[in-house]
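Handout, section 4.2: multi-component inputs.
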Amino acid sequence: MKIPSKFIENAVEQLASLPGIGKRTALRLVLQLLNRSEEEIELFAHSFMEMKAHTKKCLSCGNIADTEICSICSNPNRDHATICVVEDIRDVLAIESTESYKGIYHVLGGIISPMDGVGPSDLNISTLIQKVENEDINEIIFALSPTMEGDTTNFYLYKKLKDHEVIVTTLSRGVSVGTELQYADEITLSRSLLQRQLFQQ
Amino acid sequence: MKIPSKFIENAVEQLASLPGIGKRTALRLVLQLLNRSEEEIELFAHSFMEMKAHTKKCLSCGNIADTEICSICSNPNRDHATICVVEDIRDVLAIESTESYKGIYHVLGGIISPMDGVGPSDLNISTLIQKVENEDINEIIFALSPTMEGDTTNFYLYKKLKDHEVIVTTLSRGVSVGTELQYADEITLSRSLLQRQLFQQ
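Output:
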């Protein structure tokens, strides 16, 4: 596919550099953009530059915010003694949308993944340890993905935290709500048997 | 899903305005962009503005180009007496990639679609008629999508062209190469029966 304009080709390449967008999709999107007015395209393009220029990482938790301290960390109604450790901002949004967590967060900015060259020093870990050392923290909740990388990161964090006076918990694992039992994988099923709970009405 | 930064929310909305990109995908892409350097994001954003500023519609065929006349129309080795009528630039790319067409193109910029409010006057049709009247054109090939809108457009163009001395042809329709016959739809199958061809080895 030889695109007859180098400017369009350039725009296609830029869009196709985003994960999950191929060249064919990018071309479709670029041609759709080309139909818009110059002002609309300027708004489109500037939104990315402004985002980069004006968003900050919250100095306290690493969440993305427009201010030095994010709206969750600066909210006095939240429980600042409970910290939920997550991989990135999308996990914060997912947990926030459950409306069942009132503590604060700590965003690692990734998980330990030797395959991708991500080690502990690449993550926002030291500030978490500092917080536990200097502030009055009751509980640290590990809310990383239930993958090998997530478990590795959990284990690394646990080693760092276990000598401090803090309760370390992790999200429960078990069969998902709404799935049929026969389709649950064996590891999940055996774990949910071992970690069975008292029936509550 | 309440995004904690209005700049990120704005960027997400801009990306989600593209067809086929939902808010969740847009957020994933925006967070990936946010990890890039300021220069990279500037390159990304500028590519769209430059594309809008520098690309032109070929004065002859309506194809998108960096010059007044596109590289196909200005190529003396192509057959300028055969014009292939297509809906948009992607169709030009698709036909060019077959490497089996040596004529030139005429890009309509859409097809007649009353449901979407697109009428004949919104399309690049008059220049095609002018070309047929003023130049030495042998054949017009209709290469529009085999949909109701495509057929409507074909019929409209045919009415405009039938009093001129030009052969009007259309792409053959029939069973696709590589598909199993049992999965072909009835209309396609019955048409490919009616329009059967002498067997050639």
